[in-house]
Amino acid sequence: MRILKTIAEAQSACARLRGEGRILGLVPTMGALHEGHLSLVRAARAVSDVVVVSIFVNPTQFGPNEDFSKYPRTFEADCAMLERAGVDLIFAPTVDEMYPAGASTFVVVEGVSDRLDGASRPGHFRGVTTVVGKLFHIIGPHTAFFGQKDAAQVAVLRKMVRDLNFPLQIVVCPIVREADGLALSSRNRYLSKTERGQALVLHRALKAVEDATFSGEKSAQRLVEIARAVFAEEPGVRVDYISVVDPDTLEDVADVRDGALVAVAAFVGSTRLIDNILL
Ligand code: AMP
After folding, report:
1. Looking at residue 134, what is its pLDDT?
2. How far, in Å, CA of 198 to CA of 58, rounded?
3. Separation of 27 CA from ligand 1 center, angstroms?
4. Which side of the chain, N or C, has fewer Cβ within a 10 Å radius?
5. Structural contact between residues 44 and 145, judged by C-beta atoms closer than 8 angstroms
6. Which of these, 152, 191, 192, 157, lies nearest to 171 by C-alpha position?
7. What residues are paired with 277 via a beta bridge?
8. Which atom of ligand 1 is nearest to the CA of 186?
9. Which atom of ligand 1 approaches the CA of 153 most closely?
10. Is 37 helix (H, G, I), strand (E, B) or coil?
């Protein structure tokens, strides 16, 4: 496994591999890796000759009062985990490497970037699309792997790939959860023992919504009320949003059709967690 820190090294290594006819799979991450990330690596391993994982805590996707500086950084452990998982290349640039002084070009996917997390975190998806666009240019993957955990991110990136004609395919992998239902997240390590228990309310609310749809409930408004009632049982948790949307446009739907996305975001103490289900 090679660890590349500069854009020049990564670009030339990947260009050479592509030139040799190898199929490149890219898994973009911010590190602090867990089983969710590893599921993407395994999916990449299954269809690629060369698996590239990027580790970069991207400052442009964090708001001024968010957790950029305290975001967990566990580089040594991440590398060991990726080596065991059979990764070929790690691309781990510094912030200055990715954003040299004076960089002022951003990728903005209008509309969809302002919904769900984009509404709660202004500018977040502009940072995501900018960094992922750069990674696509640097690595030139045939396939890029993302988690359904970040459902809004998937919608925004799919649109970016379509609108800007990136010559690659996006593969979306299912949400990996703890045995009790909590979706794995690098931010789960911020949770105290009490908060870890409270955090289960996200999954419980989504389950209640799913159960209601199994019993025939179709009204998005009613499903949101059902989720809200579950959150109300956990007063330590503050809901950011509960939305029933079209998974591609992230626009609200009135009725649940096949494929509607139910997405929730909530603050457990000061930690913001997200989760979702596709109906
Ligand atoms: P992050 O390091 O949080 O930026 O995540 C990197 C990638 O891993 C993103 O595509 C996430 O959607 C994905 N990911 C994070 N958590 C999970 C999870 N629990 N299950 C599946 N994929 C995940």
Report:
1. 99
2. 28
3. 9
4. N
5. yes
6. 157
7. 262
8. 3
9. 12
10. helix
Question: How much distance in Å is there from the Cα of 151 to the middle of ligand 1?
Answer: 10
Sheet strands (E) in the chain: 2-4, 24-29, 50-55, 89-91, 143-147, 169-173, 237-245, 261-268, 271-278
Q: What is the pLDDT of residues 168-177, one digit of tens each?
A: 999 999 999 9
Q: How many angstroms separate the alpha carbon of residue 177 from the centre of ligand 1?
A: 11
Alpha-carbon span 68 to 232, nearest angstrom: 30
Q: Which amino acid belongs to residue 39?
A: S
- Per DSSP, the three-state class of 187 is helix
Low pLDDT (below 70) residues in the chain: none
User: Catalytic site residues?
Assistant: 37
Q: Which two tokens stand for residue 200?
A: 């289960």
Q: CA 72, CA 124: separation in Å to the nearest integer?
A: 18
Our answer on whether the CB atom of 156 is closer than 6 Å to any ligand 1 atom is no
57 lines ligand 1 (CB under 6 A): no
Q: From the CB of 154, is ligand 1 less than 6 Å away?
A: no
pLDDT of residue 232: 98
Tokens of 255: 């009725």
Angle in degrees, CA 166, 171, 177, rounded to 5: 140
